[in-house]
Amino acid sequence: MSDSSVEQPTQPLIEHLLELRRRIMWIIGGLVVCFVALMPFAQQLYSFVAQPLMATLPKDTSMIATDVIAPFFVPVKVTLMAAFLISLPHTLYQIWAFVAPALYQNEKRLVAPLVLSSFLLFFIGMAFAYYLVFPVIFRFLAGVTPVGVNMATDIDKYLSFILGMFVAFGTTFEVPVVVVLLARMGIVTTAQLKQARPYVIVGAFIVAAVITPPDVISQVLLALPLIVLYEAGIWFSRFAKPVTRDENDDNAQPPATV
């Protein structure tokens, strides 16, 4: 076997790996720049994140730190989370720039709106949790605290709790994107989505019961948006025509070989 026959198929792979490394370095660089720029505001960012709980605690009560290094690392973690969110558009662009050459034209037209809507819906889900759900949850927990018990929450455990809630609400708000994508790929039809509505309603309340604390109000605050978002996904799926193989073949150039 000649040397040219061995080098020819491996060369494109090396080029793709180098391009992938370059995109990853740009992603890390964007995250680092945002993190360094936000570090002077670490305490203010933590105060903002802690506000929903602090607003429900008695005036003579505050959160505690059971770990020696928690007062330093918890604000740093909050800053890192904020840096990740701020740099997320840059991260998504780098991912898009890497995969775009392997997509058909109709796929490129679909990805950009999906990425933008996913980004916005995730932020809306986080804002919904922060401004509407957290106050309800913490008022409920403060109200059921037994007499004589001081509700002094550890800052590290508090951060873990709100991060989990942010991810849960941000992810669940992606329901319309998932529904439209499934319809676009031809996996489900609008009629099938409508038939699944009763199961989705039951599933929404089950998911809400698992994710949120055991009070009815916070569970409803998650289940109702899930149902509304599913209905929005059904409405948008009416305009998501499934893509056939023939359409892909007719769209400009085929994907680049990886």
Q: In words, what does this structure look like?
A:
The protein has 258 residues and is an all-alpha fold. The protein has 11 helices and no strands. The radius of gyration is 23 Å and the shape is flat.
In short:
With 258 residues, the protein is an all-alpha fold. The chain has helices at 3-38, 42-54, 70-86, 88-99, 105-143, 155-172, 175-184, 190-195, 197-211, 216-237, 245-250.
Q: What features would you highlight for this structure?
A:
75% helix, mainly alpha, 258 residues, 11 helices, flat, disordered C terminus
Compressed to H and E, one letter per element, the order equals: HHHHHHHHHHH
How many helical stretches?
11
What percentage of the residues does DSSP assign to strands (E)?
under 5%
Tally the beta strands: 0
Biggest sheet layout: none
The quaternary state of the protein chains shown equals single chain
Q: Work out the helicity level.
A: over 70%
User: What global shape is seen?
Assistant: flat
Mean pLDDT score? 82
CA-to-CA gap between the ends? 23 Å
Computed CA radius of gyration, to the nearest angstrom: 23 Å
List the helices and strands and how they pair.
Elements: H1 3-38, H2 42-54, H3 70-86, H4 88-99, H5 105-143, H6 155-172, H7 175-184, H8 190-195, H9 197-211, H10 216-237, H11 245-250
Helix pairs in contact: 1-3, 1-4, 2-3, 4-5, 5-6, 5-10, 7-10, 9-10
